[in-house]
Inverse folding.
């Protein structure tokens, strides 16, 4: 297990390298520059100024050369400074990432806390009102995009009834709407998966064997059905986490949450190359870690999968 | 007093296409320590009978609609769920057909066997574990101590069936239902498992109901045999009598379809022509009549009861007009099934019918 984890962590290095190559060259291939009118706010800078700025930041050098310079800096954990604000990328991310992480983790926990019980009850009470209700929720949740729901939520809870604040992240009350809305998509998806894999597991022969032993129905469900049903669910949680990370970009924008999602958009629009690289590399790292954790959990749940090799 | 008495058991499945009469009025009994074979084709109601005895019929769509299952003086069908659970695994245990899917893949062998021990015998964890190891040794698992914490996928099919047997034996039940215990295994392993069951039955004086489609399997294992067809018992006798003097044409069909090593090379294996009847709308007369090469008009008109046969042992009964002394019946009483194959023209007729049925029903599903 430890060996496997170490090997997977080492594999992160080439993964991150290729992510860096692709993002760096794509970002530079996109038309526009950090110093043209669109990027700095509709004021065309004098040509001489642009030239001096380009010289200062080295953006007029050939892209491969820039990349090599960037790599050299990254190896010394120097991610550069944002063109826009001049602050260090690591400082910006260090400030904003905790907010995004909090939002993401809250949403993931909420999604899991509600979807697992809902999916299980739905499977155990198949074709009853509870089941139809949860299926309805699951279908609505997966089909209606979160930003549409967000607008309605802002209108009703924020504007009409003044129940909840919807701008910023300053108090726990501010957390409610973004967290709930962000969790809806994965929650709906996980509910469906949970229901399906419970139904699949409950039909297996070994469940009949367990009942034939005289076990109580609760014991049969908890000890025999659930552990098997969790295996497919665990494989879905990885992509769901990735969805939460990227999904938060839109939600943070809508609710003005001072997280990385906002920075993500701003950095791309402003061709703020160091910031783009910083944000993308962090996202790629997080998704890799999420996938690794899922694989490790998968090995713990299913003895047929040998993680130790 | 009999250990188990089943009276007029009827189990039905309520499906969209109609009511499937899977078990339709089955009556039999079993004494303590006795071994009974339940034989018949796929879909004749053997397994449903066994599951009914433990009230393990999935409900819905299944339901036991009628009958009594008196086990040790108590009617299982009248018990509440708690009492039934007290019997399952404890007094009646079951060995299932497919050992590959009947064990839980994510729990260790030790967990799966100890579970029942902790539940019914109130053993604590370490005692249950000790006993699990003993049980595994008993069913012939080599180095049981080392293997007790393995998972099912680390065992071969035959070993898994041994684990299932150990599980069934764990609480020393009075009755074990073995539902096709060797069907999923290859022939050499089959023999080993049957030998094991036989010796354990003797050692523990456990009553067995051995369910199989293979008359060869029950031959050396059981004291009595019930042959089932279309949810009913069609012939019952003790094992020696059934093999020496079978009376029902369906039983003959089963016997003819066993391949024999001492047969001449050119001899053809004789299948029972046609298909088992649709249990949603079964034929009105004898259920086997459409496939029977000895049939007469009376067979289509009325269904025979399970009755004693004139020139057979007293407890030998068959559900066949040909063996019963009634007006228009009794034409098979003296027939020796080994010497004749029945009316060849009727066989051809049945073949033709079966062919046309499959072609008309085939493409529509």
């Amino acid at each position: 297990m430890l060996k496997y984890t170490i090997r997977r962590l080492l594999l992160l290095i080439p993964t991150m390298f290729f992510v860096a190559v692709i993002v760096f060259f794509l970002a530079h291939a996109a038309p526009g520059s950090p110093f043209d009118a669109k990027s700095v706010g509709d004021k065309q800078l004098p040509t001489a100024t642009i030239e001096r700025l380009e010289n200062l930041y080295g953006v007029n050098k050939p892209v491969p050369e820039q990349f090599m310079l960037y790599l050299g800096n990254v190896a010394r954990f120097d991610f550069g400074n944002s063109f826009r604000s001049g602050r260090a990328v690591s400082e910006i991310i260090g400030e904003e990432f905790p907010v995004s992480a909090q939002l993401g983790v809250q949403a993931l926990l909420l999604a899991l806390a509600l979807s697992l019980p809902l999916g299980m009850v739905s499977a155990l009470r198949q074709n009853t009102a509870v089941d139809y209700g949860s299926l309805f929720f699951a279908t609505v949740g997966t089909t209606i995009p979160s930003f549409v729901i967000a607008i309605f939520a802002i209108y009703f809870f924020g504007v009409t009834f003044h129940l909840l604040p919807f701008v910023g992240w300053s108090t726990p009350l501010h957390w409610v709407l973004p967290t709930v809305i962000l969790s809806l998509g994965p929650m709906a998806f996980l509910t469906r998966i949970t229901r399906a894999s419970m139904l699949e597991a409950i039909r297996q022969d070994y469940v009949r064997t367990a009942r034939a032993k005289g076990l109580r129905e609760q014991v049969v469900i908890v000890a025999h059905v659930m552990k098997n049903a969790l295996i497919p669910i665990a494989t879905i949680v990885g992509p769901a986490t990735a969805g939460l990370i990227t999904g938060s970009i839109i939600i943070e924008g809508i609710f003005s949450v001072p997280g990385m999602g906002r920075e993500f958009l701003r950095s791309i629009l402003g061709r703020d190359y160091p910031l783009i690289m910083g944000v993308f590399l962090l996202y790629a790292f997080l998704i890799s870690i999420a996938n690794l954790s899922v694989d490790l959990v998968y090995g713990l749940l299913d003895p047929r999968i040998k993680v130790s090799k | 007093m009999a250990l188990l008495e089943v009276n007029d058991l009827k189990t039905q499945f309520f499906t969209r296409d109609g009511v499937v009469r899977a078990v339709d009025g089955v009556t039999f009994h079993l004494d303590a320590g006795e071994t009974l074979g339940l034989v018949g084709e796929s879909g004749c109601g053997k397994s449903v009978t066994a599951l009914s005895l433990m009230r393990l019929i999935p409900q819905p769509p299944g339901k036991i609609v009628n009958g009594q299952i008196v086990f040790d003086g108590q009617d299982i069908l009248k018990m509440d769920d708690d009492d039934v659970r007290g019997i399952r695994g404890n007094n009646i245990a079951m060995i299932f057909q497919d050992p590959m899917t009947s064990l839980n893949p994510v729990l260790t062998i030790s967990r799966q066997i100890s579970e029942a021990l902790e539940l019914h015998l109130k053993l604590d964890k370490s005692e249950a574990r000790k006993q699990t190891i003993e049980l595994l040794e008993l069913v012939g698992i080599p180095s049981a101590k080392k293997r007790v914490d393995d998972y099912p996928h680390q065992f071969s099919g035959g070993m898994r069936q041994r684990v299932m047997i150990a599980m069934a034996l764990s609480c020393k039940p009075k009755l074990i239902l073995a539902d096709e215990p060797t069907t999923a295994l290859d022939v050499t392993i089959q023999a080993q498992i049957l030998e094991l069951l036989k010796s354990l039955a003797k050692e523990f004086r456990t009553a067995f109901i051995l369910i199989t489609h293979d008359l060869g399997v029950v031959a050396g294992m059981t004291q009595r045999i019930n042959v089932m067809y279309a949810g009913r018992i069609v012939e019952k006798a003790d094992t020696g009598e059934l093999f020496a003097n079978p009376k029902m044409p369906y039983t003959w069909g089963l016997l003819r379809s066993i391949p024999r090593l001492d047969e001449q090379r050119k001899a053809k294996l004789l299948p029972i022509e046609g298909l088992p009847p649709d249990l949603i709308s079964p034929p009105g007369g004898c259920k086997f009549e459409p496939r029977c090469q000895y049939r007469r008009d009376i067979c289509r008109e009325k269904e025979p009861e399970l009755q004693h046969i004139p020139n057979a042992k007293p407890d030998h009964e068959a559900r066949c007009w040909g063996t019963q002394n009634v007006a228009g019946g009794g034409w098979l009483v003296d027939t020796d099934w080994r010497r004749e194959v029945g009316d060849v023209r009727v066989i051809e007729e049945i073949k033709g019918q079966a062919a046309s049925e499959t072609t008309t029903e085939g493409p529509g599903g």
In short: Chain A touches chain B through 21 residues (CB under 8 Å).
